[in-house]
Amino acid sequence: MFTDEQWIHWFDKLAEDDYVVVDDFLSNEQYRLTMNFFKQAEEKNHLKKAGIGSSGEFQIKSSVRGDFIYWLEEERDTELSSFFDIVHDLIANLRRFCFLSLSGSEFHIAKYPEGSHYDRHLDQFNERSNRQITVLIYLNENWKKGDGGELVIYKDDQEIVVEPIAKRLLLFKSDMIEHEVLTTNVPRYSLTGWLLHQPASVGYLI
Ligand SMILES: O=C(O)CCC(=O)C(=O)O
Ligand SMILES: [Fe+2]
Fold first, then answer.
1. Looking at the domain assignment, is residue 204 inside a domain?
2. Does the beta carbon of 150 lie inside 6 Å of ligand 1?
3. Whose CB among 3, 19, 114, 165 lies 3.0–4.6 Å from 172's, allowing a Cys bridge?
4. What is the span of the domain harbouring residue 66?
């Protein structure tokens, strides 16, 4: 559990810089449970080649993105309940301290095999732009320089390099931050998600 001061400190940085990195966001136990889940998903062949674009214009292009993903469902994936607990905490605190109007979330696990990458992009689709905050949790124990797979954030004239080390959280504003996953030289594991806007089209219903 984190204190209000910690949440406020992270959200201040997110507001100011459009991104924030938090180390040791997952506890050892949450990390272990997440990796167990990941290993099982791999064994059961649940991970599928990721594509680009939303359903209407979905395409698979390995030259753009080389990861394999599995979309999570909270009701089904009960082994990850302690992960979903901290997502709920994150959402509750963003609502409380940042007055964000968040209506939902979507998460997947992702494996980038050796030699894969994801080209520079923004996390919004042409026909769907309700992703507000991107949430990344890295799962690579013993990651070291040379392993590759760093995330590069492009901001103003800067290139900020984030190493995908285990238990680290990265939050950024989905509509502001262009980013890229550099080629990884080892299998690279992560949990990726998006916190979604209140869809404008249902605004009148509530
Ligand atoms: O895994 C990462 O560091 C970033 C992944 C990403 O950019 C995405 O899935 O949209
Ligand atoms: Fe992305």
1. no
2. no
3. 19
4. 4-198
